[in-house]
Amino acid sequence: MEILNSVCFNSIGIHRTRINKLVKRQLRAQPKRICWALSKTCCEYSPDAANDERQERYQRQPQNVDLPEIQPKNKKKPFPVPIKKMLQASRRDKRLAQMRIEKPLEPPKNGLLVPELVPVAYEVLDNWKVLIRGISQLLNVVTVYGCRKCPQVHVGPVGHQIQDCYGSGSQRRNSHHSWVSGSINDVLIPIESYHLFDPFGRRVKHETRFDYDRIPAIVELCIQAGVDLPQYPSRRRTAPVRMMGKKVIDRGGFVDEPKPYRSEDSVSLLAELDTFSNQQGQTPMPSNVKELAERTLKAYLSVRQGVKQLMSKYTVKACGYCSEVHVGPWGHNVKLCGAFKHQWRDGKHGWQDAVVDEVIPPNYVWHVPDPSGPPLRSSLRSFYGKAPAIVELCVQAGAEIPDEYRPMMRTDIVIPDYEEVRLAA
Predict the structure, then answer these.
(1) What is the pTM of this model?
(2) DSSP state of 100
């Protein structure tokens, strides 16, 4: 009898454990079924679609953008084109050269002009003249300061008090700047290049560097893109250049460079194209400051857009260590690079493809929300924004802030008082 009872109780326990397992399985599966039913029936609300819409709206008009980083001087600039793509193109050219097949070249890589970009080059040159003339006149209205010890620039009635000076003797000044009056070269950084009569001709060597004129890189880019200036003649080819690998097998021979045409008109034209001839005090005071600021800002945006369009076809090289720029299919051989590890390269430049910011540097400065208010403080620097010096100059002169620079200038951030900083999140 006891044996039968124990067998019955054991069977009951086994059945109970099986029932518990079945109940647990059903409970585990029940929430999934409920969620599946909810997601199937309540299809009107989708959190993924709401997040995508919010992300798309933020990308159209972002609230804030990170401030530009300062590139370290002990490192090489990053390549604008991935090195993997450059190696693939090099292997492809080498393979064609081994098979004795010419490298396929299209204008302007073969020395011929691109007819569609000739009007763009003339438009860029005209806007460049308007930009230089406008900045030189606005400097009589808006004050610009430059640090004596570092390349920092400030646009405003008084210099800011942000402690970010890293020049010589900055430790004795607690990283405060030593402000002096600035010029047009502080707002529009001059980037010059060698003018070449034939970009596919002889390279500029270190011994012959004084035989070539130095002109703004934007002007040289426009000349190679089709602008004809009698002061700076350029060779216009009718037959394309032929290359096999990296070797030029037919460039149409070498042509002697004609002497440039010099006259009083040419001297006045050169003054319009160069920033060194347009200094503060040499231009008259503008009558309508706001209209001049709007015109100057529009010219600056047009120049950047046109240069970007020209650089998509025409080759511009920049040194990966310093600010040297060369317009042409390959860089020059002048040994004047004094940047990081120049002794290892014997002073030669490390050429790579240039970007727009290297041809026309933006030169970011701190944005002053209220020019008539107190100077910018170092404790509130996390609430301030930045903008290119030209944009900040035109905005303080009365121009409207462009939409592409609003997020970086942080116009929607309320700057707290000096006593409210510790209470701000």
Answers:
(1) 0.81
(2) T
The beta-carbon contacts of 312-315 under 8 Å, at least 24 apart in sequence, are 313/107, 313/108, 313/114, 313/117, 314/108, 314/117, 314/221, 314/224, 314/225, 315/109, 315/353
Dihedral sign computed on CA atoms, order 259, 265, 267, 272: negative
Report the distance separating Cα 131 and Cα 307, nearest Å.
14
DSSP calls for 42-73: --S--HHHHHHHHHHHHHHS-S--PPPPPPPT
Contact 166, 211 (CB under 8 A): no
Contact 321, 331 (CB under 8 A): no
On whether the CB atoms of residues 332 and 203 are closer than 8 A, the answer is yes
* Residue given tokens 């005209």 in the structure block: 126
For the segment 75-86, what is each residue's pLDDT rounded down to a tens digit? 899 999 999 999
List the beta bridge partners of residue 319: 351
Task: Name, in order, each residue with C-beta under 8 angstroms of 203's C-beta and a sequence gap of 6 or more.
Answer: 330, 332, 333
Angle formed at CA 58 by CA 394 and CA 51, multiple of 5 degrees: 175
Helices (H), 140-257: 184-187, 217-224
Question: If you count DSSP H runs as helices and E runs as strands, how many of each does the chain have, helices first?
Answer: 11, 12
> How far is it, in rounded angstroms, from Cα 73 to Cα 405?
27
Reduced to 3 states, what is the DSSP secondary structure of residue 75? coil
Residue 329 pLDDT greater than 60, yes or no:
yes
Q: Which of 176, 90, 232, 77 is nearest to 377 (CA)?
A: 176
pLDDT tens digits along 156-168? 999 999 999 988 8
